[in-house]
Design brief:
This protein has about 475 residues and is of the alpha/beta class. Helix content is about 40%, strand content about 25%. The longest helix has 22 residues. Bound molecules: NADPH dihydro-nicotinamide-adenine-dinucleotide phosphate.
Length: about 475
């Protein structure tokens, strides 16, 4: 079995410990490769390499730096099919999704930030007798830690702006889905990225991840993952006065008023509930429906959910593939049991699914719709991160805003109404970092991305990302008048 390697100082290397972790194909439950179980020593090598690389990389002309990012994006695009196959094999998501969303978005992330950095202006402020100008300089070495649900998509979302701004990076992808990150290492070598500019270390969060976070030479940490892990990372990084960007969990409300464009809402709500097996931090997991249309919505939605095809992620007709890992599969099933114990009624799904043949050992869960639960029960307050949604009727705008805002999370919300004034009122009143009105997952990379409350600290995307990955320095010049 071919083993994955770390990418340190421009080459692929085995871990210092020589220990490896099993990497699974969730659609079959079988181990298909192994990844380095890295630790402090590997991170130390990466930091040394990044330190050596930093002066030249940060001092390089912006156009030249951008040209490396463009080359990387071109090579990702050239290898789109291979990368999509790998993403699906390692994550369990349908191949059509990897091909149409995950990998194309990784291409876009590098392309976008290669261009954005050439437009990144610094400010100047004039007054009588003085001129101020602000330098925006890279931070140095940055740590990037990413989750398993959108492996290459989210990794590239962090790497592209960090590198474009002139930093050197030490990245740790989720130990569950390291395959496309490893392939990205090979692409960076082919692109001729200077040695040490990017280092990718594989391994567990508690060893490799925390060695990156706690290293004194790592000046900033950008993290996407669960809220609990975000808190752990902050406990280490905050006392060391590191810059932190945390993109964390969510429990997103999907609010449906009776005056919505019903057909568009229904098509999109099926997607926003179950796409990627519900394993997108932006999925709407609590569906609030105005009482007037509650029964109609319930019947239509359940019928649509029942029609979704769960099966081999490699096949074109598959709507939902496998759950990413056995522990996560068990966590989702635990929450379905909890919902029943809390008095919820399962309208469809609610069970694991045993498929035949080579898929027999895979981790599949039916799309699950639950009603009859109070808005403040655990099922409606805690993140499940799977193909499970609850339906909650509401009567007034005030009531739905109160329920929508009742969780500790504040990542994204979805709103369906044709009433313009109401749309603006709710957008201003709902406590989430992202509000989608009559759409979902529509992303303009120039806009700020990130959550409020326990869903995160700081924003990424566009100029916010470039500001996070640089430090401002103001220079004041006295002018003799
Ligand atoms: P985790 O928080 O478990 O892990 C995320 C990453 O952090 C992994 O690489 C993990 O490694 C690493 N890690 C774990 N512990 C530590 C530690 N002590 N120090 C440093 N690194 C550590 O999240 P999941 O991978 O389970 O991803 C799902 C979560 O991500 C959900 O809560 C989801 O909402 C959130 N998410 C948020 C998004 C957003 O934009 N706000 C987008 C996508 C997902 P290891 O794999 O070894 O544990």
């Amino acid at each position: 079995m071919e083993k994955l390697k770390n990418y340190i100082n421009g080459i692929l290397v085995t871990p210092y410990s020589n220990n490896y972790l099993n990497i699974y194909n969730p659609s079959t439950g079988e181990v298909f490769t192994m990844a380095p179980d890295s630790g402090k020593e590997d991170v130390e090598l990466a930091v040394d390499a990044a330190k050596k690389a930093f002066p030249e990389w940060s001092g390089m002309s912006i156009n030249k730096r951008a040209s490396y990012l463009i080359r990387i994006s071109e090579l990702i695009e050239k290898n789109l099919d291979k990368l999509a196959q790998a993403e699906t094999k390692n994550n369990g998501k349908p191949l059509w999704l990897s091909k149409s969303v995950d990998i194309p978005r990784a291409v876009k992330n590098f392309e976008f930030f290669a261009s954005a950095i050439t437009q990144f202006a610094s400010e100047s402020h004039h007054d009588a007798g003085t001129l101020n100008y602000t330098l925006r300089q890279p931070l140095g070495i940055v740590g990037a830690i990413t989750p398993w649900n959108l492996p290459l998509y989210l990794l590239s979302w962090k790497l592209a702006p960090a590198l474009a701004a002139g930093n050197c990076v030490i990245a740790k992808p989720s130990e569950i889905t390291p395959l496309t990150a490893f392939m990205l290492s090979e692409i960076c070598i082919e692109a001729g990225l200077p040695d040490g500019v990017l280092n990718i270390i594989h391994g567990y969060g508690h060893s490799a991840g925390s060695a990156i976070v706690s290293h004194p030479s790592v000046k900033a940490v950008t993290f996407t993952g669960g809220t609990k892990t975000g808190v752990e990372i902050s406990k280490i990084a905050a006392p060391m006065l590191k810059k932190l960007s945390l993109e964390l969990g969510g429990k997103n409300p999907n609010i449906i008023f009776s005056d919505c464009n019903y057909g568009k809402m229904m098509d999109t709500t099926v997607q926003s509930s179950f796409r990627n097996q519900g394993e997108i931090c932006l999925c709407g997991s609590r569906i609030f429906v105005e009482k007037k249309i509650y029964d109609k919505f319930k019947n239509d939605f359940v019928e649509r959910a029942k029609k979704l095809k769960i099966g081999d992620p490699m096949l074109n007709g598959t709507d939902m593939g496998a759950i990413v890992s056995k522990p996560h599969f068990e966590k989702i099933l635990y929450y379905i049991d909890l919902a029943v114990n809390e008095g919820g009624k399962i309208l469809c799904g609610g069970k694991k699914l045993k498929l035949d043949g080579k898929l027999e050992g895979g981790w599949y869960i039916q799309p699950t719709v639950i009603e009859g639960l109070p808005y403040d029960c655990r099922t409606n307050q805690e993140e499940i991160f799977g193909p499970v949604v609850t339906l909650i009727p509401f009567e007034s705008e005030e009531e739905v805003l109160m329920m929508a805002n009742s969780t500790e999370y504040g990542l994204a919300s979805i709103l369906w109404t044709e009433d313009l004034s109401r749309a603006h009122r709710i957008a201003a009143g709902i406590k989430t970092g992202i509000v989608w009105i009559n759409c979902w997952m529509v992303r303009d990379l120039r806009t700020p991305f990130g959550g409020m409350k326990n869903s995160g600290v700081g924003k990424e995307g566009g100029i916010d990302a470039l500001r996070f990955f640089t430090e401002s320095r103001n220079v004041t010049i006295s002018i003799d008048c």
